[in-house]
Design goal:
Blueprint: H1 3-18, H2 35-38, E1 48-50, E2 59-66, E3 69-75, E4 79-80, E5 82-88, E6 94-101, E7 121-130, E8 133-141, E9 144-150, E10 158-162, E11 169-172, E12 178-181, E13 188-193, E14 207-209, E15 215-222, E16 225-231, E17 239-244, E18 252-257, E19 282-288, E20 294-301, E21 307-317, E22 320-325, E23 328-329, E24 335-337, E25 367-369, E26 377-378, E27 386-389, E28 391-392, E29 403-404, E30 411-419, E31 427-434, E32 438-446, E33 449-457, E34 510-515, E35 520-528, E36 533-539, E37 546-547, E38 552-553, E39 566-573, E40 581-590, E41 606-611, E42 617-621, E43 626-630, H3 637-640, E44 646-652, E45 655-660, E46 665-668, E47 673-676, E48 689-693, E49 699-703, E50 709-711, E51 721-724, E52 737-741
Parallel strand pairs: 28-39
Antiparallel strand pairs: 1-24, 2-3, 3-5, 4-25, 5-6, 7-8, 8-9, 9-10, 11-12, 12-13, 13-14, 15-16, 16-17, 17-18, 19-20, 20-21, 21-22, 22-23, 25-29, 26-27, 27-40, 29-39, 30-35, 30-40, 31-32, 31-39, 32-33, 33-34, 35-36, 36-37, 36-38, 41-44, 41-52, 42-43, 44-45, 45-48, 46-47, 48-49, 50-51
Amino acid sequence: MNRTILFARLLSLFALAAGVAAAASSSSNAAPTGLAAKHWTADNGNGTYSNPLFYEEFEDPDVIRVGDDYYLASTTMHMNPAVMLMHSKDLVNWELAGYCADRLDLGPTYRLEGGNIYGKGIWAPCIRYHDGMFYVFCNVNGAGLMVYRSKTISGPWERNQLPGKHDLSVLFDDDGKVYVISGGNAPYPIDELNPDLRSFKTDAPKRTLPEGMGEGHHLYKINGKYVDISCQPGGAVDQFVAVADSIDGPWKVTKMVTSESLGVPNGTPAAAQGNNRGLWLHQGGMVDTPSGEWWSIIMSDHGSAGRMVSLVPITWDDGFPLIGLPGNLRRAPNTWVKPNTGVSQPPKPAFVHDDNFNGGKLSIEWQWNHVPDDTKWSLTEKPGALRLHSLPAASFYNARNSLAQRPPAPESTMTVELDTTGLAIGDVAGLGLLCTPYAGVAVVKTAEGVSLQMFQGSAGGARGGGGRGGRGGGRSAPAAVAPADAQVAPPVAVAAPAAAAPAAPAIAAVGTPVANPPAHVWLRVHCNFDTDRAEFSWSTDGKTFTQVGSTWTIPGFQLTTFQGVRPALFNFNTTGQPGGYADFDNYTVEEPRARGIEREIPVGKTIILANGANGNVLVADLQTDLLVSTELLDESTALKERAAHFQVLDLGLGRVALKAANGKLVSVGPEKTTLRELGTAKPGDAESFQWVNLMRGDTMLMSLTNHRYLAAPPDKSGLPTATALGASPARKSGAEFKWKVAD
């Protein structure tokens, strides 16, 4: 048979086995059940976890430990409520504890009045605990530094305001001094706050951190040493760490993590080419456990789904905290053993986005796009439904009271029921994907009738720019800033214009609109973040859905909204006047790949492993007792002798040994990988591999001898070695394998 045909057949077979869009399948090692089986859960249920920690956007993380509890804060930009706060007992399973501010209302643009603050608002919070009080410090871009304080993580939170400090971090020192380091360019100022945190000390010595660092600071004092970690601005950037005996320096600087992408590309994942350098881990905090371990929760860009965080171990080396494991420092495992926190708990998803609006209050996962007008939405006017009264706007991008969530990756389907009985002429109500460009599916009511249609548009201009027109290009005027000690102001309702503005045209449809849809419909959007494709559809019964419009390309991560795409419920009016109302119900989010084959370890099964770079197969050379990577043909001796068959033996903690057909185990040596007869002896580190499941159907085998990965030559046959430092974004380095169960 032609070798090219055989090679193509083999790759096709492995792609089918990988099943990157397959429904969830059970893991052989105590797979999570219940909600954890339906929604992304980092906890694998076998004593290990897999990154990302949350498979959805969570930006600029900062983490602390208080006793045996862990707390995490995140950037929320222009969204309300503001400053997301998480709680955990084991650093892997988290829950949303609340927000620092119910409303971030610092002027008209925060309310989408005469402009917007897209991509601005809350940036890079710093969370601290001192003398029985939680503090969250966060810069509001263009407004100032907010200092939130509360005795409990659930609030209520008091706020005072100080002059702005970019990407700051705060250290409460042993002598009572409070240091603040900030800035994105050297020299980085180290200021002092007065003990009440309501003003800066004007007579403090002038201190700076020298060049070689970046932004996103995290300042600590550990065993008498001052430690600051930060990163250079960008997506493919490293994180640095500086250490000094004194806050005055001198500081020693080194890289904390280097070129670690965890296999995340800098473009559409399914289209990644072999030379793709990926998007690297950068900007995150660090924390210890009572057992003495150190861990980092650190961010990386994930394209159109937004920026996400990973949990990675820290190894101290020559006085520096470096991300990684011995033998492979400054790189990070995608899958590893859970932290030793002294707490054991079953897997639990951090976010379950479904909401039937029956509880009398919105699910905690919802956030408003800018500050809402609370007089124009209700959960009580029609009990069991969310009612959105329309306000004037020229586009979805500028519509007030749009209610949004983060979409789970790598794939998710959002569905909502919509009752349009209350729509008025000019109303546009539906389900959209909020970013720029944006798109959605909406029911549109005009004087000519009602239609259901897909729409799309773009909001040009710089971050925080654009007025009500939705395509304006200028920056908005500086926001009015509340007094330093003021509480967050209550939302201000938009007053109706004194006279009706000229009617705006209805939004332009993509494809053929559906004329005169029934008043009760279901709207749906399916997002695949591996292909960056979204399809909008609708239904009359909630069961059979029909696509409307065309497949839409989800834009990559962009710096205007400074976020990934956000599904949003909306109702706005294009006539310049407030209009009618729309009722939303039963919002659901399905995650078909939350526990897919990418999370499975085929323990007890006999498998074949193919190199993702060239399709070559791992084979046990029974004559030389060497592991080789070679092209496998139907008529080959290796196939007939089952030399390409390896039984996966369970060693616990997600670790496996590979048993060849002759009973010998794959064993890693310094220069080559051999087959070794152990008899009754237990496998050692040389025979033990951490099974690492990347998404998109790829698997890596981390050797416990050096915490590096088994890799075969990517362009030819040859001898595999445990030398690869990490995953390739294109999955073509020779260290990424696809597996299938042997016949």
